[in-house]
C-alpha cells in the first residue's frame, strides 16, 4: 500500500498536468480516464445512450469528494463550488467558481443564467449537500437544485473499494485522496437514468422528493428525511459523547438517535424547544424550566441537555418545590405502565444507592453511575 501510494503520487502529478494542458474534449477525457485507471480509479458506466444531450442539469447522489471528477471523465459537466473557498485549490479540484457568496436565491439565479447559454456544459448538482457511504439511504434532497431547470437527469453513483470504507464522515478530501492511492483499486459505477420533467405546477420540493425516490429505488437504499444539517449535528454529538469522561455504555445508542423528535421536525422554534424542555423536565423535575430551555437552544438535543445537567456542566439552583423529591423515584413513577417492572427495578436500585453512603470513592462513583444510568434508561423510553 505504501509503495502504491508513493508511486501514484508521482503519477497523479502528471495526470493533473495533462488534464490542465489539454482542452476539454473526448480525447482529453479518454487519456485522463486511462491514466486514472493507473491510479486505481476505475470508472464504469451502464447505458451511456440514456444520457440526454439536451438536459442542462444532472442530479446525482453524493458518495465521495471526487464524484464530480469521475462523472466529468464520462461527459463534460460543471459543478459549482458551494463549500470550498475560491482560489487555486477550488479550481484544481475541478469546481466552477461563480463568485456568488450570498443566499441560495442568488445562487439559483446565477445557475439559471449559466444554463441559459447553450454553449456551456451541463450542471452536475448534488442535492444531498453532504457525502455518505451510499449503503443505507439517501439524505433529504434540497429543493434549490430543482429550481434551476424544469428537466433533470438523475445519475446513480455507487463506489466499491476493498478493505477500506468508501466514505468516512468528517474526513478531508486529502485523506480520501491518499486512501484512494493506498488501496489497490476503487471502482465507480455510474448509471444514467431517463430524464425526469417537472409536472404541471409542481413545487420544487415535490419535484426533489420524486427524483430522490427514483434514485433510492435504483440504488436499492432508503429515501430518508434526514438532512445534511442532521448529519453534521450527529457528528458533533458523537464527538461530544466520546469526550465525556464517565459516559455510560448506553451513550453510544443515545448518540445514534436523531436530535429532534420526528413529530416536532416541522414545528416552530419556540414550540419545538418548549416541547423538548417538557421532556427534560419530566426526567429532571428539580431543574428550572428556563435553564433547560437555554441549554436546549444551544444543544438542540434532549439527550445532550440531560447529559449536561447530570454531569454538572450546567449550573442551576433547584426548584424549591422539587428540591426534596427523590429524583429516580419521581422519574420512575411517571414511566408508562407497560414498563412498570423495569421502572421499579431502577427505582429500588437507585434508592438503595442513595441511602447508603459508601466509604470508598470508587463505590461512591459506582452509586452515582447507577442513578445516572437509571435516568438515561428512562430518557431513552
Can you write the helix and strand succession as a string? HHEEHEHEHEEEHEEHEHHHHHHHH
SS-based class = alpha/beta
Number of DSSP helices? 15
Number of domains: 2
Oligomer: single chain
**Helical percentage:** 40-55%
**Low-confidence runs (pLDDT<50, min 5 residues)?**
245-266, 322-359
- Taking Cα atoms only, what radius of gyration do you get, to the nearest Å? 26 Å
Shape: globular
Mean pLDDT: 77
Subcellular location: Endoplasmic reticulum membrane; Lipid droplet
GO molecular function: ubiquitin binding
Membrane topology: Peripheral membrane protein
GO biological process, one term: ERAD pathway
Write the layout of secondary structure elements.
Layout: H1 2-21, H2 26-38, E1 41-46, E2 57-60, H3 67-72, E3 79-80, H4 88-92, E4 95-96, H5 104-116, E5 123-125, E6 137-138, E7 151-160, H6 173-182, E8 186-192, E9 196-197, H7 204-219, E10 222-223, H8 228-243, H9 251-255, H10 269-283, H11 289-299, H12 302-311, H13 327-333, H14 340-355, H15 361-380
GO biological process, one term: ERAD pathway
GO molecular function, one term: ubiquitin binding
Domain CUE: 272-314
